[in-house]
Design a protein that fits this description.
alpha+beta, Ubiquitin-like (UB roll), single chain, Molybdopterin synthase sulfur carrier subunit, Beta-grasp_dom_sf, about 90 residues, ThiS/MoaD-like, 5-stranded mixed β-sheet, two-stranded antiparallel sheet, Mopterin_synth/thiamin_S_b
């Protein structure tokens, strides 16, 4: 069994159009490393030197990982990780 990672439309070019991919790891950081090995270029869109990118929201089973431990958040087989780009702006 693996961890399902749901990919937003804007990042699907890295997953050959797949809406969801499987990955493995004990922490979110390891999971992202596995994603990078399977889908090169994806990691740079999710993290930078400071950790998770500011305008990328990542949820583990519907819980924001920023409140669970960030990249050190434990993940397990059967979990679902959802990646969502933050949306800002609007009309005045």
């Amino acid at each position: 069994m693996a961890i399902e990672v749901r990919i937003p439309t804007i990042l699907r070019s890295y997953t050959d159009g797949a809406k969801a991919v499987n990955a493995k790891g004990a922490t979110l950081e390891e999971l992202i490393g596995d994603l990078e090995a399977r889908h090169p270029g994806l990691k740079d869109r999710l993290v930078d030197d400071a950790g998770l990118r500011r305008f990328v929201n990542v949820y583990l089973n519907d819980e924001d990982v920023r409140f669970l431990g960030g990249l050190g958040t434990p993940v397990a087989d059967g979990d679902t990780v959802t990646v969502l780009p933050a949306v800002a702006g609007g009309a005045r």
